[in-house]
Each structure stands twice: as C-alpha cells, then as structure tokens.
Write a structure and sequence with these properties.
Layout: E1 2-8, E2 13-18, E3 39-44, E4 52-62, E5 75-79, E6 90-93, E7 98-107, E8 110-115, H1 116-126, H2 133-138
Length: 139
C-alpha cells in the first residue's frame, strides 16, 4: 500500500510513500540542459503492457509555449509515441538519466513531460524526502 504525501493536480504529480527497502534509484539528469533533437525514451505500462518503452526526440523544453493551455509552465515536449499508461513513468535521456516524468499525450506523436527539476522542487515543497526524488515521484 502507498500513502500520498503530496499532490499537484495541475501537473498531475503525486508523491507516494511505500514501505519497502532496497529499491533502486535512477540517476538524475539535468532537465534544464535538454535541447531540441536530443534522444529520449519513455517507459510505462500502456494498455497494461508492462515494461514498454518508446523512443523519440525532444522538441523543446521550458516555459515558452505561448499558444498552449500550459503557457508559462515548464514542460518537456517530445516527439514519440506516448500513449495512456506512460503517464507517471520516467522520461530518460540517452545516458539513462531521469530528465522528466511523462504526463500527457498532446497529439498522435507528441507528448509532454514534467521536467525533473520541477519534480524536485515539488518534492521539496510538499513531501518529506525519504528516498530519491525519482522513487517518490514514480511509485
């Protein structure tokens, strides 16, 4: 069972606490350094298929999306086949580091992820840190 420590409905994020030990932690990447054209991979469970992965490229990252519902908020936009079931899973860079948390399907081959530095700030504001930010954010 998990206990909700914090929730951000606007970003579709939740920090959960589970009673488990020995969980592996993912290495954190620098979401602020992402550039258009970089390869990324989304991991998730679309349609109940465990351990699924899809690869694509970063279209852009940051708050500069004036003609979108999320104008002024920081997001990573990616061109890949993000489907329902990837939400809440990791977005990792080509070196295997966590750079974001998959959040929404924007179009047929367009997805959005919450940058990991935004996730870290969310955890610092709303949830006591007991494990790595990735483990808390993705449980």
């Amino acid at each position: 069972a998990a206990r909700i420590l914090a929730h951000d409905a606007r970003r579709d994020l939740a920090a959960l606490q589970v009673d488990a030990g020995g969980l592996p932690a993912v290495e954190m990447g620098d979401s602020r350094a992402l550039q258009a054209g970089e390869w990324v991979m989304a991991l998730g469970h679309p349609w109940g298929i465990g351990g699924a992965a899809t690869a694509g490229v970063v279209i852009g990252a940051g708050p500069d999306w004036p003609r979108t519902p999320w104008a002024g908020q920081e997001w990573i936009l990616v061109r890949l086949h993000l489907r329902p079931g990837y939400s809440g899973g990791p977005l990792i860079d080509a070196r295997g580091r966590l750079v974001g948390i998959n959040s929404m399907v924007v179009g047929p081959e367009l997805g959005a992820a919450v940058p990991v530095h935004v996730v870290e700030a969310f955890l610092q504001r709303g949830a006591p840190r007991r494990t790595s930010p990735a483990a808390e954010a993705m449980v």
